[in-house]
What does this fold into?
Amino acid sequence: MMRAWILPILLVLCGSALATGSTVSGNPGTAAAVLVAFVLLAAVNSPLIFPRSIGALEAQRRSADDGRPVVFWRPGCTYCLRLRIRLGRSARRALWVDIWRDPAGAAAVRAVNDGNETVPTVVVAGRPHTNPDPAWVRAQLSLPRRREAHRGRKPSSGSDR
It folds into this structure.
C-alpha cells in the first residue's frame, strides 16, 4: 500500500522544497505556481484517480457474471495512467485490480505475460490483452450494458409471429 504513495509524496515534498526556496528568495508568485504544479502532478500519479480496486478473484467472478472487462494495473505505471485518463468516466464500468495490493492479481498477470508483471493487462471474456488501445477498451466497456439489457428478456421461440 505504501509504495503506491511514494511517488506522489516525493512530488509534494520536492514541490514544497522548491516553493520554500522561491518564497525565501522573494518570489511568492513563483512559489505558488511551482507548488500547484507539483501538487497536480502528485494527484495525477496517485491511486486516487483510479476507480476502487477489488481482488482478482472477485473481479473474475463479477466479470463472469456480467461480462465487464477486468483491468490489472499498478500505481506509477504511465501506460495505466494513459488508459485511465483516455477512458474517462467509462473507466468506472471496468473492474480494476491493483496488482501491488493483490498477490492473486499479480500472479494472474504473470501467468498471461510470460512471467512478467506487464500492465495494463485487460481481460475480456477470459482473453488477456496486454496494453490494449484505450479506444478498444472503451468499446468493450459498452458491450456489457447491451448484454445486461437483454438479460431480463425471454428468448423468443419464433412461434409468436
Notes: Helices lie at 6-24, 28-44, 56-66, 78-87, 103-112, 134-151. The longest strand covers residues 70-73. Confidence is low (pLDDT under 50) at residues 144-161.
